[in-house]
Amino acid sequence: MKKCIIVPVDFTDIAFDAYCYANELAYSVDASLHLLHVSSGSFETNQPLDIKAGMTHEEMLLEKLKGFARWHPNDQQKPLHPVETTYQVAIGNIVNQILKVAEEKDAFLIVAGTRDKHTLKDKWLGTVSSGVSIRADRPVLLIPYQTSFEKVQNLVVACDYHADNYKVIKKLSTFSYLTRSTLHVVHVKSGEEVEFEYLKDEILDMLRTYADPTLQIKTATLENTDVVTGLYDYADKYDGAMIIMISQKRNFLERLIHRSMSMKAAINAKMPTMVLHVES
User: How many domains does the chain have?
Assistant: First the structure.
């Protein structure tokens, strides 16, 4: 059975960019796509529909969703790959429904579009992408607006003290194997702290245990007062195509800290950023 990638859709060009990225990624790793639109159940002014006699609101949205999958906003758009794609319209709270469908489909990944700025009109894919990345029990890949797919040759992994979790290591190994990419295990020191080196060898040993023998692994320790900025700077320098941020949720205080980091990644992402929780 193919791995499934969920793509939330709000019918904007931002969502279409995320869909195009997901289409390329699904094609490269032999996965299927499931496009999902969540509606409040009432007609919304920002989602005009062609009213058709005999069709329910949900049926009209489903038809619009299938049309969206064929939409090309300009002549420069690359043709979509022939990826197995299914469609669904759900009713209710947007974040809750995305997480529910992801669980029902046993999704390998959720791919969501995100914006550069956080404003009221960003309600759907601004707060939604952040909310999903914080609460999801599986990896969430955030795609910044106007980001084109690039072959994932270098994965930059934000590595911290909780990264020696075998479930996380297995997911990193699987994703690097599927994309045939080099893993850059990067630790960003944001102040005085215990040396990370004693854990690095343990993490590398786990990666080599679970990963394909041909996996290339590089490590680095950086100093930056802002973890997110340090990661993006490193990725820019070493041609990183994607950043993976590992988030831990052990207690309320740590959830608040990682909530802030996840939100910052969702809003300020300069390149595709995956949020992977230790419990995922």
Answer: 2
Same domain, yes or no: 174 and 269: yes
| Other residues' Cβ atoms within 10 Å of the Cβ of residue 153 | 14
Are residues 106 and 18 both part of a single domain? Answer: yes
Specify whether 57 is located in the same domain as 185.
no
pLDDT-derived band at 149 (thresholds 50, 70, 90) equals: confident
pLDDT digits (tens, 9 = 90+) for 98-130: 999 999 999 999 999 886 554 434 444 456 887
Q: Which of 144, 173, 191 marks a domain boundary?
A: 144
Model's pTM, two decimal places? 0.80
In a domain, 149, yes or no: no
Task: Report the distance separating Cα 277 and Cα 110, nearest Å.
Answer: 13
